[in-house]
Amino acid sequence: MGGLKDELLKAIWHAFTALDLDRSGKVSKSQLKVLSHNLCTVLKVPHDPVALEEHFRDDDEGPVSNQGYMPYLNKFILEKVQDNFDKIEFNRMCWTLCVKKNLTKSLLLIAEDDAFKVWVIFNFLSEDKYPLIIVPEEIEYLLKKLTEAMGGGWQQEQFEHYKINFDDNKDGLSAWELIELIGNGQFSKGMDRQTVSMAINEVFNELILDVLKQGYMMKKGHKRKNWTERWFVLKPNIISYYVSEDLKDKKGDIVLDENCCVESLPDKDGKKCLFLIKCFEKTFEISASDKKKKQEWIQAIHSTVHLLKLGSPPPHKEARQRRKELRRKLLAEQEELERQMKALQTANEDKQQELESVRKKLEEAASRAADEEKKRLQTQAELQTRFSTELEREKLIRQQMEEQVAQKSSELEQYLQRVRELEDMYLKLQEALEDERQARQDEETVRKLQARLLEEESSKRAELERWHLAQQQAIQTTEAEKQELEQQRVLKEQALQEAMAQLEQLELERKQALEQYEGVKKKLEMATNMTKSWKDKVAHHEGLIRLIEPGSKNPHLITNWGPAAFTQAELEEREKSWKEKKTTE
């Protein structure tokens, strides 16, 4: 719903701006009432004139700004909008309000209806900030789509030249500048008006009306079973078919959902390039003009159903969102780069200020050194003046006291020698002071450098300690895992040895059992042979002794030795045979 609201606001912004005749940013309340009534009509929202009066009830009878109108627009109109209104009618109403003020028809090579479609496309591709503009990337995308629809070749060099001449003070074009760019034929040279109009209409159908594919195909009827040519229009959730491509006489819809599917059919009944669209309630049999068209329609319908299953928007809307997100990402990266550049510039300025401060300190130090040198020279000049005076006085004294020159010449020589030593000491003292001052400055510089190096060394040492600790932990963990694996290996080897020993024991027992089985088998065979020969002898002589065999279920006779091994009938038979033998003897 948020995307629909943003799209509606763009067209309403054009209408509000058109009503602002003196470009003051405000519109009279009477005009806003008319605008609100028209918006409620085309958006199919119940109009409440009392709410408008209540919202603007104040003592100020003057015009209302865009910011003042937005709360009413959001609360009483946009929040009540459902997706059941005619978007073309809504855009046409806003276009009617702003076209007379902004469009110069005499300079255009396209019709007003084509200019309206370009205006609607502009609102779709423009940025989500006001005043509305379309950036060069979206201009290039639109011009490429138009050129492709006209069947021409894209001239990248021509567009690059256009971008070079683009005004650096502007981030993009307004709607009217875009209409002028397309209408003056700069990027459609060699194309007639009809071709340009058809290209604008094709791009308008794709981007605004969400037409994914359209064209003539044959459709088989559900009742008469006859084939009729229809103009099919594929949208994200429906396929509509019309009598012709002017879309005036609509014959029906094929509602698509995630359960629909499309299948290719073999040629039959004289019809070729057949495919089937299976929906929940009905099945539609379609015949394309050729195999390429058939494959294109099958792929387009399959992609549409797949998008319905994923709940994704149409491809051109998803591509527009990706382009906007990419531009936002590039803008964020550019802002971050500018922020880093400003930070570097600030750091550079701080360094410059620091260097300037050091330079001033050096100049002050040089000034102090010059003052001290001046004082030293002045002191030396005073000393020289004093020495000259004393020398003159000595000359006078020498002239006056020539007789004492000889006596005090040695003292004078010593005194002069002492003066020279004092001068040398004074010069050395000045040099030592200068060296000491320079050494202090160097020491201060070295001390700061050492402090910085110590801080860096401390941070590096702490980092090395962390790395060392992490490495020790990793080594300990590896050692523990290694010991555990070694223990598991030893246990597995022991278990394997025990299993091998058990297997050998079982093999030995099997061999012994096999030998015992062979012995028992041989004994059984011998016993069987002996029993057979003994049974034959007993049966031959028919003695009283009989082999023990499974008895019958009849009652057994009892002898002195226990249960008899013969029955009563056998006993009677044998008695009869004995009597016959005695009779014959």
Automatic annotation (TrEMBL):
Show where the PH domain sits. Answer: 210-306
The record's keywords, sorted A to Z, are:
Cell membrane, Cell projection, Coiled coil, Cytoplasm, DNA-binding, Membrane, Nucleus, Phosphoprotein
Disordered: where is this region?
345-380
What molecular function terms (GO) are annotated for this protein?
Answer: ATP binding; DNA binding
Q: Which GO terms describe its cellular component?
A: actin cytoskeleton; cytoplasm; lamellipodium; nucleus; plasma membrane; postsynapse
Q: Where in the cell is it found?
A: Cell membrane; Cell projection, Lamellipodium; Cytoplasm; Nucleus
Q: Mark out the compositionally biased spans (Basic and acidic residues).
A: 348-376
UniProt-listed GO biological process terms: actin filament bundle assembly; isotype switching; negative regulation of actin filament depolymerization; negative regulation of cell-cell adhesion mediated by integrin; positive regulation of actin filament bundle assembly; positive regulation of cytosolic calcium ion concentration; positive regulation of mast cell chemotaxis; regulation of protein localization
Entry's Pfam families? EF-hand_SWAP70_N, PH
- CDD domains, A to Z: PH_SWAP-70
Q: Which PROSITE patterns match?
A: PH_DOMAIN (PS50003)
Gene3D superfamilies noted in UniProt:
Pleckstrin-homology domain (PH domain)/Phosphotyrosine-binding domain (PTB)
In UniProt terms, what function does this protein have?
Phosphatidylinositol 3,4,5-trisphosphate-dependent guanine nucleotide exchange factor (GEF) which, independently of RAS, transduces signals from tyrosine kinase receptors to RAC. It also mediates signaling of membrane ruffling. Regulates the actin cytoskeleton as an effector or adapter protein in response to agonist stimulated phosphatidylinositol (3,4)-bisphosphate production and cell protrusion.
Q: Oligomeric state and partners? A: The SWAP complex consists of NPM1, NCL, PARP1 and SWAP70.
Its recorded name reads Switch-associated protein 70
> From which lineage does this chain's organism come?
Eukaryota, Metazoa, Chordata, Craniata, Vertebrata
